[in-house]
Every structure is written in C-alpha cells, then in structure tokens.
Amino acid sequence: MTPIQGKGRIRVIHKKIEMGHDKKIALVAHDNKKSDLLEWAKYNLDLLAHHKIYATGTTGEILEQEFGFKITKLQSGPLGGDQQIGAKIADGEIDFLIFFWDPLEPQPHDPDVKALLRMAVVWNIPIACNRASADFMISSPLMDGDYARLVPDYDGYRSRKIPREERSQQGPMDSAGGDNTVKGSG
Predict the structure, then answer these.
(1) Which of 70, 80, 97, 183 pairs as cysteine with 75 (C-beta 3.0–4.6 A)?
(2) Which is the catalytic residue, given 31, 36, 46, 82?
(3) Quick check: is 82 catalytic?
C-alpha cells in the first residue's frame, strides 16, 4: 500500500478492479449448511444462471446435478478447496464469495476457513455468510451491472525493501556464541 500523508491524515491509494456484468461467484458450504445453500441457490437460479459459478467439492457436485449447468468444481474444503478459492480471489478470478459456514460446529480446517475469509477482505470482494446477506447481495442493483471495486494498491508492499540482518548470514550456533561444527559419534 502506498499511503499519502497530508494535513494530519493518511490516505491509501486504491486501484480499481473491474467486475463485469457476469460475475464470478464462489459458492461454499459446510456440511450442515449444504441444504441451506442448495435451497437458496434453487430460489435464485434465474439470477445465478448467467454468472460463472465456482464451488468446492461436494457442494459443486450437488449444485451441478441439481441445476444442469456447468460449475467449476474445486477440491473439497478440508482437502484444499478453501485455499483454492482464496488463491482465485487473490488472482482476480472470483468476484463474490457466498460461504454458508457453520458457526456451531468446529471444523478441522478452521485455519483454512479463516484464511479464505481474510483473502475476501484483503481483496475487497463481497462476502455473504448466511442466507439473509446472500439475499441482499444477489438482489442488489449492482449485481447485474459493471462495477469497479476499490482495492488498496499493494505495489508498495510488494516492492518494499526487507532489511537484511547480520544474523541471517550466520549459522544457528554462531549467533549464540557456540560453534556450528558437526561432531562425529566416535
């Protein structure tokens, strides 16, 4: 990010990322929420039909069988699907995340879930985590038009100089004052 200072305030420079008329939407649901997502998607089928849909594992299989149109299916969430969706968000390949997650059930891949939600926030994409927020998002007038979302300009962050410390050039024992020679067994 490239902050600009002026009159006591810091302003962050943003870039615009264009989202076309047809959005790229990721649909993800934990096991206890798959039926909710399926019901929601059935109700909104006409609105979803012209968009490009991505989904993780089983959710994608269920949706594709139910609706009969192509869904880009990724791995199941616990097998890396959440991370695949996060990578696609970072690469600009996904515009929206509709993720019905289960707040009452611990997930073995909770760190992946948190990372996915973090990517959505970092790249400023709309996120719906329940039916009500998904209903508001899908029915927004912005949904079927072009939209330029603002994302902080991360070029400054990417090109920052990383200080090189003297210790990074020493062996692990050198910095502690010992020697780093390997001793034989005999």
Answers:
(1) 80
(2) 82
(3) yes
